[in-house]
Prior knowledge:
Structural class: alpha/beta
Number of strands: 14
Largest sheet: 6 strands, antiparallel
Distance between the termini: 41 Å
CATH topology of the largest domain: Rossmann fold
Order of helices and strands: EEEHHEEEEEHHEHEHEHEHEHEHH
Strand order of the largest sheet: 6-7-3-4-5-8
Helix content: 25-40%
Shape: globular
Number of helices: 11
Bound molecules: NADP nicotinamide-adenine-dinucleotide phosphate
Amino acid sequence: MRGNPFGTHRVVEPKGLLPQPAWKLDNDTTKLYDNEILIDVLTLNVDAASFTQIKKEVGNNESKVAEKILEIVQKRGKMHNPVTGSGGMLIGKVKKIGKDMNVPVQIGDTIATLVSLSLTPLNLKKIVKVHLDKEQVDVEGEAILFETGVFAKLPCDMPQSVALAILDVAGAPIQTARLVSPGDTVLIIGAGGKSGVLCSYVAKKYAGPTGQVIGLVHSERSIDELRKLGCVDEVFVADAQDAVSTYEKFMKVTGGKSADVVINVVNVPDTEMASILCTQEGGVVYFFSMATSFTKAALGAEGIGKDVDMIIGNGYAENHADFAIEIVKENEPLLEMFMRRYA
Ligand SMILES: NC(=O)c1ccc[n+]([C@@H]2O[C@H](COP(=O)([O-])OP(=O)(O)OC[C@H]3O[C@@H](n4cnc5c(N)ncnc54)[C@H](OP(=O)(O)O)[C@@H]3O)[C@@H](O)[C@H]2O)c1
């Protein structure tokens, strides 16, 4: 039997919605539709905004985080954080392929899903280990990929946990490459995080010698690391939730010049106004952060009379997975950093 290509046949409630906005999905993995793939899940990469919110709610404690994840999946049939609305992605082995699926993988191949966990039916049997520092969770369970679900085979020349971390944020570096032009002043808000370093490296590459890439980090420890990577021309510490002081600090760094492009890759809410204030008239703000509020950004920009283009960070772009893996491989210090943090 064929299911709907977008997965609406798995929506339990409310009926009629697509799987992402739906509250609950049917995660019964004993039945497989002819246009679905069944995956034996190995590891979940929980979205950074979601993981941060869960840790804030239950504490920085492995078993409590595990309990919360199990509770969400039990209630919703998917790892869709009800507070942040975000998901993450997973790696696993292909277990069964529906007979109508013509895909370039075989049973037993290890793949990473490139569609959000917030729309992926997930049946968790057990949480094996929560990696609090990596935002990754080793599990036993099964997941379903719909006909339109994008996935990538994992590269065999890097550890799976490293590839998972890079692929989780693969939409950001390729979009940065599209937005940044030679000579641009670029501000990366959250430059010390995993998408932050990827975007900084790409921004530096595309802004060229006449451009300026400035990293805003939250904690001092990221300063040395970013400088060593050579991805930024300047780096400064600020709390992006404090819009005015962030703007003042940024103006000091640039000598009064606003940014042509601002890239927001933080994992906390309430950073829309810092991003908008630091952007010049006619410039671009790229909100990749899942904690971004459309309302706060739209009304906030209007409120200060700022005419800027604001882009929602689409998690998908053509070729984004290969692009993200390639940029890490082409820069040894970047690869070393990812190995240190996520291997
Ligand atoms: N659009 C999409 O499709 C998509 C896909 C995946 C992820 N995301 C989102 O992208 C964002 C970044 O993900 P990630 O995995 O790169 O996150 P990450 O590695 O956790 O990095 C987030 C960074 O934000 C910084 N930060 C936290 N609070 C801050 C503040 N008040 N001011 C300035 N910086 C602050 C953190 O700095 P400290 O560590 O120093 O606090 C950290 O370096 C998240 O919101 C995630 O949900 C979006």
